Amino acid sequence: MSPRAAGRVRYAVVGTGARAEMFVRALVLDHADTTELVAFADVNQARMDAHNRWLGELGHRPVPTYPAGDFAAMLDKEHVDVVLVTSVDVTHDEYVVAALRAGREVVTEKPMTVDVARCRRILDTVTETGGRVTVAFNYRYNPLHEQVRRLLAEGAVGEIGSVHFEWLLDVRHGADYFRRWHRDKATSGGLMVHKASHHFDLVNWWLAATPVEVYAAGRLFFYGQDGRRHGYARDYDRAHGSPAAADDPFALRLDAHPRLRELYLDAEAEDGYQRDRNVFAPGVSIEDDMAVLARYSTGATMTYHLTAYAPWEGYRVMVNGSRGRLELDVAENDFVDRGTAGAVKGAALHGAEAPAEGGGATLTLRPFWAPPRQIPVEGRSRHGHGGADARMTGVLLGGQPDPLGRAATADDGALALLTGLAANRSFETGQPVRVADLLTPR
């Protein structure tokens, strides 16, 4: 019998950084009638203590905390049914595999993991145990992305021949990946894995197809030590306590964000992790400008570009088919004000409503032999990830109906991951990479 069928489901969260907040709030506020948060596990006690303080603000009792090394013991002692994995990306497989072998279900943040060996380990363990892993691809739950899925499935453009997908991260949001642990490809897989896996999963889902071959080119152009040539760099290693960072629009001021100060600045003494590194400091091993050409099992192709240093934030998707073309344009903000450039995007933590920004969304169908038609955009929201976070937790934690099949499996997680890993390999070799040569999903 599944935990959900047995009654109130007991959840533990491993990894208590900023991303955990969305899941914690959903468990104790939105789905408290069917779920119970019973434990935290982390390498840093101060971060777990911060989350327990915030639970008190929500009227919830503190939950037991466990060092990450005691994860397996926690599962038994707290009678955990489902593990929520929100730790650093490179550690996902450790907790996913341990939970599966202990007979627990898993919901893991994207990306599922960061390399082929860890991906294979997860898939093999799913096969061995018959366990269940769900990957939290919240972009699937954005009402606008659901609308695109329905239009394509209904044949709005006929048979799909190609997709062009451009994603722009502005110099506020994009810069943030170069301040924190994501700047190290060994821990994040780079933006082709950590960020673009969202987008590759969307294309897989929209096309109902799997990637076959990937060719890509990417480089570190704007950030990092070599990016100092552009004239924006200030001479400091981390922003906190540095006079040189005072007027730097790329500096994150942790003191200005109480939640981030508690999670990171106040917790540094335990593990030394610095959340506010200089984006132009040495040690950046990820790319910030990436181009991808992918071929899919249906014969369709995708051209994709990710820019992490744009003056505005948003994305454009064009789908070309045998009956016309579908165009999606989304501006999440029109420009970045210098006075707010050094802030994190939206609210300090996920799950809260973001402040209003400029921009909007348009969806245009351009059929053959007829004028273009503007399609009204459905359900656009300022809440977390365009309203997707609440919809996702409703399905993954609340057991709500999922007629569009949005809940991503471990195989889905692998397919999104493998596109990014193939791109990374192509960066290194300059050659096309067959996905099957990396790993053949079940």
Brief rundown of the structure:
The protein is an alpha/beta fold. Helix 2 crosses helix 14, helix 7 runs parallel beside helix 11 and helix 11 crosses helix 15.
Account of the 3D structure:
This protein is an alpha/beta fold. Helix content is 31%, strand content 23%. It is built from 16 helices and 16 strands. The protein has helices at 3-6, 20-30, 45-57, 71-77, 92-101, 116-129, 143-153, 173-176, 185-188, 191-194, 196-207, 258-265, 268-271, 388-396, 410-429, 435-438; strands at residues 9-14, 35-42, 65-67, 82-85, 105-109, 133-136, 160-170, 211-219, 289-296, 301-310, 313-321, 324-333, 361-367, 373-374, 408-409, 433-434. The strands form 2 sheets. Strands 14-13-12-11-7-10-9-8-16 form a 9-stranded mixed beta sheet. A 7-stranded mixed beta sheet has the order 3-2-1-4-5-6-15, with helices on both faces. A hairpin with a 5-residue loop joins strand 13 (361-367) and strand 14. Helix 6 packs antiparallel against helix 15. The radius of gyration is 21 Å and the shape is globular. The two termini are 25 Å apart. One of its GO terms (molecular function) is hydrolase activity. InterPro entries: Gfo/Idh/MocA-like_OxRdtase_C, Gfo/Idh/MocA-like_OxRdtase_N, Gfo/Idh/MocA_oxidrdct_glycsds, NAD(P)-bd_dom_sf. Keywords: Hydrolase, Oxidoreductase.
